[in-house]
């Protein structure tokens, strides 16, 4: 490894035995879309690495709080699922601010810290669409998460919400035989609900489920059943037809809604408001509000 400037001399971290403050600028680090890769190789002492220019990200790998906030990926060569990591981020800081990466027990940890894409709550990266906003975990293949889900609502209807797996931002679903269905296709509604019934991400209108398993590498779309449960929809109205008094499935994709109305509104990161009236009602989107907080398992 090439020598690194260490204010104001040079050293080789492979042989260093003392704590160092290392200025690695302008070594070729990845800084595209707020990303940075820091390679500390091996060291027997704590190191403080200051990297500029990127937004501030503070990581203390000795912390006991396993919450990961405002970071999409932290890769410590496999340690992500076995060691607690606490993070905090300030995306609003000008891009000339430093990044502080603190590794108090670096010798006991893998040697590459990979911090990628500062984008807010896990799963919210692509929640900026006119419709079809989802919980997008497609970038986390192979990573297990836990989801804390809560709902609240002001509707008179008995409403239930679930999440089903989609293939893309258009809401396509793939059946076991390989058939692909898009919102509006025949059988889309009932197949989506059957998919939602295969996981534990189902709640009533005032409910909470904590620590639910949710798998990385997938995209989860919300669906609400108005005036019934997911199971009742499959048996009573699998075509999603009928009128205002029938049980209905309302999707985050207008093409899948039999009344042609958008029943979902994004209220915040991983937070969706629902209008449960056929035809749109008063469009207040507070008949059911669901929030999902995703953490590493």
Q: How would you describe the overall organization of this protein?
A:
By secondary structure, the chain is mostly beta strands. It folds into 2 domains: 4-116, no CATH class; 135-296, no CATH class. The chain contains 2 helices and 22 strands. The chain has helices at 188-196, 230-236, and strands spanning 4-6, 9-11, 20-23, 36-39, 47-51, 56-60, 73-75, 86-90, 99-103, 112-116, 135-136, 144-152, 160-166, 173-174, 180-181, 203-204, 207-215, 219-226, 248-251, 264-268, 271-274, 288-296. The strands form 6 sheets. Strands 3-5-9-6-8 form a 5-stranded mixed sheet, with no helix packed on it. A hairpin with a 2-residue loop joins β1 and β2 (9-11). α1 runs antiparallel to α2 (230-236). Residues 1-11, 22-40 and 47-119 have low confidence and may be disordered.
Extended strand count: 22
Count of folded domains: 2
Q: How many alpha or pi helices?
A: 2
What is the strand arrangement across the widest sheet? Answer: 3-5-9-6-8
Beginning-to-end CA distance, first to last residue:
35 Å
Principal-axes geometry comes out as: globular
Q: Low-confidence stretches at least 5 residues in length (pLDDT < 50)?
A: 1-11, 22-40, 47-119
Q: How would you sum up the major sheet?
A: 5 strands, mixed
Gyration radius over CA: 23 Å
Our estimate of the beta-strand percent is 35-45%
Q: Helix proportion of residues, in percent?
A: under 10%
User: For the residues shown, what is the average pLDDT?
Assistant: 73
Order of helices and strands: EEEEEEEEEEEEEEEHEEEHEEEE
Structural class: mainly beta
